[in-house]
């Protein structure tokens, strides 16, 4: 049987340097655990625009459709701010999500013990935090029509449309319930049913799917604004949160920051199963391209490395190996290694991106 295939899209800014560290981890699994991958690399985002005039070529899109998993670094940068909307780096990412139909975006917010003091919240509020936000990723106001800016009389009007079909809501709700069963069996669904019809439908469909197929899972509903408030007040009340594309974008940044550093958090975007039973999948760190520190060896590679751990778990059925990698990350943090983003006010000497990657490889070796 051939090796599972991975398409690596480092992207812009710090993307390439954090992805170099992930390559070390991938190589380690090939050499030490007999888990070899066929890896190809390509361009996405601003670098693809520079090379081809588009943030994602059809050829790259085609490759993404045909691999077992895509691993992406980050896209965007100030250099591209004035580009037309249709060719902005972010469009490359949105096209991948949409055309691969990656409707369930898993964004864990987990607080590493060694970093509990980094949160803007008290350590006892965030210590041991482990929640999962499932954000609908292929519909809602991000893609709804009509959209655009047009003229009405003598002023301009900007329009976007929040739109959800019943089946779009049902499938992401199922993803949330399935995941909850493998965790603490609790789902909280968030929308704005008090002001939006799409929110009323969201609540109805989630409730129906629950009653018909998942009544063993504990389900609650919250308005998304109250959800934001509860997330900062007492985040440990949640296990799995399921919400739409835009609310999920906001709530996942909020949840990420509870844990102390955006530089730590991975994500998985999953679609329907392919012929081989694996879900269509793209893995990427939650953080952006951080152009201000790009190329300086300061970036934290952990979010991207943990994204590969999610790939091991959700695409390749290697949950134990994913846990091994997560434990290796915990070990280097417990040993006190810190990239610049993790330096507290007491200071100290940060390690470089590459040193962090090397230390994680060393911890993996020690795990054997
Ligand atoms: C995210 C980002 C993206 C989004 C941008 C880069 C298009 O904020 O993945 O959360 O808004 O979805
Ligand atoms: Mg976002």
Q: How would you sum up this structure, described in words?
A:
The protein has 368 residues and is of the alpha/beta class. It folds into two domains: 1-111 and 261-368, Isopropylmalate Dehydrogenase (3-Layer(aba) Sandwich); 130-258, Isopropylmalate Dehydrogenase. Helix content is 41%, strand content 20%. The chain has twelve helices and twelve strands. The protein has helices at residues 15-33, 46-52, 58-66, 89-99, 123-126, 166-181, 197-213, 224-233, 245-258, 302-314, 319-334, 353-366; strands at 5-11, 38-41, 69-74, 104-110, 130-136, 148-152, 155-159, 186-191, 218-223, 240-243, 266-273, 279-285. The strands form two sheets. Strands 2-1-3-12-11-4-5-10-8-9 form a ten-stranded mixed β-sheet, sandwiched between helices. Strands 6-7 form a two-stranded antiparallel ribbon. β8, α7 (197-213) and β9 form a beta-alpha-beta unit. α8 (224-233) packs parallel to α9 (245-258) and α10 (302-314) runs antiparallel to α11 (319-334). The two termini are 26 Å apart. The model has no long low-confidence stretch (mean pLDDT 95). Residues 249, 253 line the site of magnesium ion.
């Amino acid at each position: 049987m051939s090796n599972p295939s991975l398409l690596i899209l480092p992207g812009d800014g710090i993307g390439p340097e954090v992805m170099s560290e992930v390559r070390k981890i991938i190589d380690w699994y090939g050499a030490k655990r007999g888990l070899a991958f066929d890896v190809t690399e390509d361009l996405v985002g601003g670098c693809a625009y520079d090379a081809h005039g588009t943030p994602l070529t059809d050829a790259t899109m085609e490759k993404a459709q045909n691999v077992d998993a895509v691993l992406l670094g980050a896209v965007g940068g100030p250099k591209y701010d004035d580009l037309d909307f249709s060719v902005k780096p972010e469009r490359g990412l949105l096209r991948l999500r949409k055309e691969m139909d990656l409707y369930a975006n898993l964004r864990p917010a987990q607080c590493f013990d060694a970093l509990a003091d980094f949160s803007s919240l008290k350590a006892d509020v965030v210590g041991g935090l482990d929640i999962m936000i499932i954000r609908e990723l292929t519909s809602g106001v991000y893609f709804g029509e009509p959209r655009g800016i047009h003229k009405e009389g003598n002023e301009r009007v900007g329009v976007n449309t929040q739109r959800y079909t019943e089946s779009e809501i049902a499938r992401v709700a199922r993803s949330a319930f399935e995941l909850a069963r493998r965790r603490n069996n609790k789902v909280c669904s968030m929308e704005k049913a008090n002001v939006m019809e799409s929110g009323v439908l969201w609540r109805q469909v989630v409730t129906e799917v629950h009653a018909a197929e998942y009544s063993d899972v504990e389900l609650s509903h919250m308005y998304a604004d109250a959800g934001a408030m509860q997330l900062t007040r007492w985040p440990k009340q949640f296990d799995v949160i399921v919400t739409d594309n835009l609310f999920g974008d906001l709530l996942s940044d909020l949840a990420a920051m509870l844990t102390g550093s955006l530089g730590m958090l991975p994500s998985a975007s999953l679609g329907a199963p392919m012929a081989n039973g694996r879900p269509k999948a793209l893995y990427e760190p939650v953080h952006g391209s951080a152009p201000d520190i790009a190329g300086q060896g300061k970036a934290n590679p952990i979010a991207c490395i943990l994204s590969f751990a999610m790939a091991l778990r959700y695409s390749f059925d290697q949950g134990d190996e994913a846990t091994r990698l997560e434990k290796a990350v915990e070990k280097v943090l417990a040993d006190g290694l810190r990239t610049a983003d993790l330096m507290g006010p007491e200071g100290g000497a940060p390690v470089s991106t590459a040193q962090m990657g090397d230390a994680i490889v060393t911890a993996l070796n020690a795990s054997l």
